[in-house]
């Protein structure tokens, strides 16, 4: 028994899957469809989605195509990198961080257009359905959510193609279909399925799209310098760049040096393990550089507390809880630490390696005078004796109290 | 006013610093000195320390020279790697993990020889003094600790050399003195001081001793396979190896591929920041490989809890709390998770990169059937609807309750 | 479309709800029913459930009635109290901790009797359904679970009574029906519903069953002494008691002094807030006494780490994850700390108050010599200067480095 | 070898200890002394300190006497209570939270008066020396700190009295000297020493000063209502009160009902265990009431994250790290959660008991409709099936994967 729906906003890419969904929504729910196509740097033109939507009967005023790249990097990617967020030690959360933005904007468009429902093309076994739907409900809990992959029985590519053919949906077969399920945005591109379903198998070189192989990268290293303000990268080699342009540039540079590939088995929120390969070229530079500028400018205990909270923060983003109050609570703590995270990091890029080779800051807390074994102005070596003694006092007391027990 | 001491066990390397200390202890404390020299894989012969000690007047029965390499890797390095321990996101704790073992053995030798004091050559501004002394006091709180660097005024190399000359201590001047302060064991070699005191400066290539530069590494990648049992590496390319031999082999292999360099600014326990460079070739492979075998065999929440506890565990080791009950408490939790961490990881090594290219386990929790968007035997996609709904319920309720507030 | 089921093990109390479920299972699933009734100290006779089951057509060999009180306290309640577990600052987890045991035993009986399904009487909005079903699936993932409250439409007391009347289920109407939904076991009794649905309303005195009101408690305080071994209470006023008898005795004593009432609004795992009142008389004494014996015998950092992990541990139990590996991982850490938690605690009970008035232990780490401001044998007051100085060093350095910034 | 000091600001109470210190500073350091006496609600007149100081030769312009009660409660006590901070499960941090304020103001007066040193009367084995000195150094790292108790040899009351007599310091011997070492401020009064050095001994009733015994409290309960805004108490029984007046009032009310006594063994930062008794009457009401208003208005995961961070936050305050960036980082997270913590809590006070008997809020997230087992507008009971299934999926998969292993 389907819920009554008058108007639905669909996250629409213009590709096979979401075109089939578009048609299916019209047929099954007999409702008006609003399409929303966002440019978040996935590397494909978004304008073609307009003609596609019109050809499927969408009214021009119901077609929303927007460039969200700057917002994406400024308000989602950068805050996340302030936390040095990595999921399960390896994954830079490229897909996870993009979903909340799309969901939020989709809910806003629902409000603007008076729609009572939203829909997405994420499948029923993945994390993305959760991320989309948590995003919708976090914005407007009254929205009806339609997740076609959990409702219909078109559970294979063949059935989708048959449905498309049957309903007059034109699909460009541009060359061979990739054997992988992919997702891309300005932060990363991901691969799942195909040969990756065997975790013992190495993916073929041809799978990777954004980076050359380290073996095919230049024989000469390249040096770059990133400038930071309040924990965010603001300049590259001395030139101020907007957030999205910064990430675009880093992607290009890192990509040509074979930087940013990851091949992992991860734990999905919905309960199973899955194999994924990721290219996050610019992000891989950013996480290394951010830690380096923090190493000069963060207080030790701030840094350690950040490290302890990070896995939980990363998990919240992975699981789709970007708009949850506990994520905002952690963000408040993280952002508090970034006020003095300012300066410049120099990096050497070479065949897959990102090497920090220099960092400097006018707010640096490093002073070589204090490290050498010679005398200095603030540190009296005799103090170390008392420091150690009192740190060890509980062991000394326990040793005495329980000597013969 | 010095404490009265009858017999002291000195951690003795045979080099300039500890030879001066030996003499100084005899002179200042007018006490018998027992020397303890351990082979923990620092890559220097330990037997020469015997003749050196004898030449300084140590009685043969007071000279202890021991090979602790297997104990070091089996009981210290491996347990630590079960935790995926990394300090401040970068440092694999190579120096930190060796000090407790030396301290423990030194305290045991004090008991055996009836000594009432122990002494070490760590300076008054570093972490090692803490690690040594926490180790001593954790074993025997009644020991008197002599830390010459905090007592004497020989606070420069020149003064040490003068003291040596004056007291007839022979120093082999084997070539040029390194500008760096170094520490080595089977897990790593570290560099501090010299040009590294400028965090904006890249160290010269000649500093590094255990690894070639990625640029000078072979143009051909090498594949290796590591077998795991209960979270520890037990075989390399199908051949069973003891812990120390495993790490030695991995050091050689990784070293020739330019793997395992780190260049960081870190926060010392005693309060200041310091710049350090580290080579941890085998360890860098081990941490990557261990995470890979865990990715197949650990339960998700076990893995996440381990990740959250890890920074604290690493900090305990860094700060010298290996023998503290809170470290043992965390170890109990970590070890509990490793019972099923078994299987094989395949790695590709190439010019500084360690790439996981395959993992397999008879205890694997990965099953491709559950990941694909098709139907399977355990997962009903409709369940995801309820799952998301109840996860979002608190947002839905808050949205309704506070709509107009 | 119902799943085919041959034989189902039902958690059966003999009351209205589970008797209706019994009948409903027979009718709807047309399957053999095995009843399982456990005595976990709920304070009602369990034997009458046998005649009741027989009257509903259950074969004698399909009726399981067991006394699980000792196992409950020894293997569930005591381990939980080692952690000082409290949910949301107030709730001692009385209901939460009993469900896993019942679920585990139910799954075992399913194996013994060759049943392919299990069923329980928990409703579809509460936490207990989760706790039961997580327990079943943690034991045997192949079991079919039947949760009648989520399937049928008998969603009111009236409908249940009508169903009972219609199907010849005899219900003893012993006096007036309580307006509260209750659950009891040796650890506690809980109340929900009725007037409690208004969080601004105070429950009437007549609701409480196990404790007198503090106002009606004796005017004279009572002193008791509890002996501990490895973190568990083993003797009361010098007399050794088994776990269940210990808790029974403490319930009686605490109950007469008005100890152990709680009135809270809590957050359910399934997403909403609910109001609950609880009586946990013996448990309220135990949590106070356990902390007191720990205060003498635990190392400081062990104690603090336990405190930091506790809320997560409590949440796992509340949410039904008793058999999850992450709970076992935390338990391993907690149990590791309890080896030396031994001694005696003296308590004063008076009109709702539990006051610790004495603690002693042969393993005590307390020594008054170290606390007074006078000299002692282990602590040199001058050490405090160095201790403070190095703890403050990062502030001193930051102050200097950023003075004019 | 003493440091040269020109002018020192002394935390001065006017009592024996600090009067002796005042004289000793003049004699030993031959420096000008500025006295600072703060009213933080310790319950003693502060003005008499003026005449006392003058009699000891302090210039009138060097005498600072200030009423800090409102600042103390508003900027220190209330922020701490937002966190529900309790140290080691029992201690409400009454002494710990007052020291940073005094230290901060003392450092400010040093700046104003051009003093180069500060001094306090805390002993060398306690926590307070750390709290004072961390506070000084966090404000101005250039200050010289003089801690007489760690320098002189007046380590007994007899020697102090002799010194006073010898130097013409008049001491009023008002009745018998208390056998306890005490500290008081608006939040609490503490007792150490004397009979308390035996942790098995119950303190005599006469020790307690701010509360009657529960046994002597009125036989009739008293009901009060506290209003909250942004997590802070702002009104009592409908009447708006300033922070300090609020706490004063609560102290009086709670004190007459025997509320707020604690008797514990705690772990000091400097390494030993110590016994302390505390009266925190108003604070004991506040912590209970704050949790109650949070129970209605906080999101579940916010609340749980707060609970997990609390022990660390409490430890920071206990250890003297109020001005540390990691405390500020945690405060930012905590304060973020308090925006909607608004409403009214009704409490019943009776012979030592604080019972929450009602809470209400226009921002309440509680809705009885969602809790009952009947149908409601947001919760579909069938969703629970999917929710449980996916939460248990990892157990199901593990069960299948490892069935025969």
UniProtKB/TrEMBL annotation, chains A, B, C, D:
User: Mind listing the UniProt keywords for this protein, alphabetically?
Assistant: Amino-acid biosynthesis, Arginine biosynthesis, ATP-binding, Cytoplasm, Ligase, Nucleotide-binding
The Arginosuccinate synthase-like N-terminal domain extends over: 7-169
The UniProt GO MF terms for this protein read: argininosuccinate synthase activity; ATP binding
Annotated catalysed reactions: L-citrulline + L-aspartate + ATP = 2-(N(omega)-L-arginino)succinate + AMP + diphosphate + H(+)
List, in alphabetical order, the GO biological process terms annotated in this UniProt record.
argininosuccinate metabolic process; L-arginine biosynthetic process; urea cycle
Domain Arginosuccinate synthase C-terminal, residue spans = 180-395
Name of the top EC class for this enzyme: ligase
Please state the pathway this protein functions in, per its UniProt record: Amino-acid biosynthesis; L-arginine biosynthesis; L-arginine from L-ornithine and carbamoyl phosphate: step 2/3
Highest taxon listed in the record's lineage: Bacteria
> What subcellular compartments does it reside in?
Cytoplasm
Keyword Transmembrane recorded: no
Q: Where does L-citrulline bind?
A: 91, 96, 127, 131, 181, 190, 266, 278
Locate the residues binding ATP.
11-19, 38, 121
Main location group: cytoplasm
What EC numbers are recorded for this enzyme?
Answer: 6.3.4.5
Where, by residue number, does L-aspartate bind? 123, 127-128
Its family remark reads: Belongs to the argininosuccinate synthase family. Type 1 subfamily.
* Subunit structure comment from the entry: Homotetramer.
The protein depicted here goes by the name: Argininosuccinate synthase
Q: Which organism is it from?
A: Sulfuricurvum kujiense (strain ATCC BAA-921 / DSM 16994 / JCM 11577 / YK-1)
